[in-house]
Write a structure and sequence with these properties.
The complex is a heterodimer of chains A (171) and B (81). With 171 residues, chain A is α+β, with helices and mostly antiparallel strands. Chain A has five helices and four strands. Chain A has one domain: 2-Layer Sandwich (Alpha-Beta Plaits). Chain A is 43% helix and 29% strand. In chain A, helix 1 packs antiparallel against helix 2. The longest helix of chain A has 26 residues. The termini of chain A are far apart. With 81 residues, chain B is an all-alpha fold. Chain B has a domain of 56 residues: Ribosomal protein S18 (30s Ribosomal Protein S18, Irregular), CATH 4.10.640.10. Helices cover 44% and strands 0% of the residues of chain B. Chain B is built from five helices and no strands. At the A-B interface, strand 2, strand 4 and helix 5 of A face helix 3 and helix 5 of B.
Chain lengths: 171, 81
């Protein structure tokens, strides 16, 4: 088993059903090859840095999973055929992952998600029902627990604009 | 050779930001950090200017290229070309 993460961009004009269909299809391939989905996150609509197939926006889906190289090849083959997928990228994050490590990662993700949910609930002061138990198979919990807003990468708080200024000064 | 003394005027010790701050991880998904190491045109800023160490510059370079692939960062031009 290897650990991969795949990001794929879907066309912005797709309906909710079509999006879930694509996600389900990819999950099926992973699970069909005895892989495990560790994290599935819909980042939602994002502006693209450049045009892809004449689209300025795209629907980002992030998927972290343990699987085999064959599964990755199959997923990418499907993506190439599927017209609704604008672009995809798979990155191998670990060459080998044991079952324990998978479980650890899954539980880590689920705790992070429940925390995020709790924080969100505290903000809204309306408590939605929480997932009672972090399930072993993450695909169920993650689908429930995906937050509405696209999760942005962690904010680099200690980054100052010093070097960029410096750079422009010396150029 | 004539440039040598001039360089002294604004020489400040540049430190690798990733060595100084161990919390800061290079990740292609962290666009906000990567933006600091890319010029307005979207080019990767050379090491001699930003002052990152060789190891981190290499990782940074890869991260930026990965971010470009998945349209987090532009290949060229500021935002939308």
């Amino acid at each position: 088993m290897r650990r991969y993460e795949t990001i794929y961009i879907l066309r912005p004009n797709l309906g909710e059903e079509e999006i879930t269909k694509v996600i389900e299809n990819t999950n099926e391939i992973i699970l069909g090859d005895k892989g495990i989905v560790i994290e599935l996150n819909k980042w939602g609509m994002k502006k693209l840095a450049y045009l892809i197939k004449k689209e300025t926006q795209g629907y980002y889906v992030y998927c972290d999973y343990a699987g085999t190289p064959a599964a990755v090849a199959e997923i990418e083959r499907k993506f190439r055929i599927d017209d609704s997928v604008l672009k995809y990228m798979t990155i191998k994050t670990a060459a080998a992952i044991s079952d324990e490590q998978i479980q650890l990662a899954v539980s880590e993700v689920s705790t992070r998600e429940t925390e995020a949910q709790a924080a969100e609930a505290a903000e809204e002061e309306v408590t939605p029902e929480k997932p009672t138990e972090p399930n072993k198979v993450s695909s169920e919990t993650t689908e429930e627990a995906t937050p509405e807003k696209p999760t942005e990468p962690t904010e680099p708080n200690k980054v100052s604009s010093e070097t960029t200024e410096e750079a422009t000064g010396t150029e | 050779m004539a440039q040598r003394p001039q360089k002294k005027l604004f020489s400040r010790k540049k430190v690798c930001r990733f060595c100084g701050d161990k919390e800061l991880k290079i990740n292609y998904k962290d666009v906000k950090t990567l933006r600091n190491f890319v010029s307005e045109r979207g080019k990767i800023i050379p090491r001699r200017i930003v002052g990152t160490c060789a190891t981190h510059q290499r990782q940074l370079c890869e991260a930026i290229k990965q971010a470009r692939q998945i349209a987090f960062l532009p290949y060229s031009g500021s935002t939308q070309g």
